[in-house]
Write a structure and sequence with these properties.
Arc Repressor Mutant, subunit A, D-Maltodextrin-Binding Protein, domain 2, ten-stranded mixed beta sheet, 14 strands, 44% helix, 25% strand, elongated, DNA binding, transcription, transcription regulation
Length: 310
């Protein structure tokens, strides 16, 4: 009897968390009530009960506004993991395999997001029609815990030691420019490169960059970047507009090179490959939807020209 009472107590707390997730995501008690097919007073009572259990204020609400407190935002980020772990418990205890279900929240870079990252997401959705996916694209460093997302596809080094980081591989990068720009500048050599206009991509293509050849030689070259941006898409657009020599992964510029809109610059040299990672919140349990997404992403990336698997 005591075991049943404890299970019911835990289940009740999980119900409160599930209600809070709806409140936090919808930003409204009335909207959360509609999503849960219940009444607004019931949702309000559950919120008050959760605040009493935790001993802190989770939301600021008036007749005109509603917002989460700092504690509420922190709880929202952790509540997804707690409810997912509970929902997967029966599958792990019975030895069964959990199906990808629920809502997958992914953050990724805008340039990759409009390419193979979106392809991986649509592949996953086609294989699991019951899965819902929210893809957020940004070139900024994100706070994964505060965002409520389950994984973050990262270009370059992941500097947050609190995240679990999975290295997927590395992407080659080449120097490119329009034929018109190369006609104006004349032949490009390693010695002349620092004197020519380049398009910077913060923080990956600016200042001094390392160039490598197939024999393993490396050279540090300083770039002059009168135009700099932190957006891969903006950088690539500026290169296509003839604003300067720039860098791109082979998968991104292959079609434009084939069509003659761009040319390789210093074709025997490559920029240092850049690592691609998936960052995950800490914890041992991963919902099946996260594992399935990583596998779908790997399949898409392995087919890309210039990608080196880990």
């Amino acid at each position: 009897m005591l075991y049943v009472m404890r299970m019911k107590y835990t289940h009740d707390r999980l119900d409160l968390l599930a209600t809070f997730i709806r409140i936090g995501e919808s930003g409204s008690l009335s909207k959360a009530a509609r999503l849960l097919d219940t009444t607004q007073p019931t949702v309000s009572r559950r919120l008050l009960e959760l605040e009493r259990l935790l001993g802190c204020k989770l939301a600021l609400r008036t007749t005109a506004s509603f917002s989460l407190t700092d504690e509420g935002r922190s709880l929202l980020a952790e509540a997804h993991d707690l409810t997912d772990r509970w929902s997967g418990l029966s599958h792990r205890l019975s030895g069964g395999q959990s199906r990808p279900e629920g809502t997958l929240r992914v953050i990724g870079p805008s340039g990759y997001g409009t390419g193979f990252l979106t392809d991986a997401v649509t592949d996953l959705r086609a294989a699991h029609p019951g899965l819902r996916i929210e893809l957020t694209l940004t070139d900024r460093v994100v706070d994964l815990a505060a965002s409520g997302a389950e994984c973050w596809v990262c270009v370059g080094e992941v500097r947050d030691p609190g995240l679990v980081c999975r290295h997927l591989g590395a992407m080659e990068r080449v120097l490119i420019a329009t034929p018109g720009l190369l006609e104006r500048t004349g032949p490009v050599t390693l010695a002349r490169l620092p004197t020519l206009p380049c398009v910077g991509l913060v923080p990956y293509v600016e200042g001094s960059v390392r160039l490598l050849d197939r024999s393993g030689r490396s050279r540090m070259v300083r770039l002059d970047t009168p135009i700099k941006t932190d957006s891969l898409l903006s950088s690539y657009r500026a290169i296509l507009n003839g604003a300067g020599i720039g860098a791109a992964a082979p998968w991104m510029c292959h079609a434009d090179i084939q069509a003659g809109r761009l040319k390789r610059v210093l074709p025997h040299w490559w920029l240092e490959p850049i690592g691609i990672h998936v960052a995950l919140p800490p914890g041992l349990y991963r919902p099946a939807r996260v594992t399935a997404f990583i596998e779908a992403l790997k399949q898409r990336m392995h087919a890309l020209p210039g990608f080196r698997p880990a």
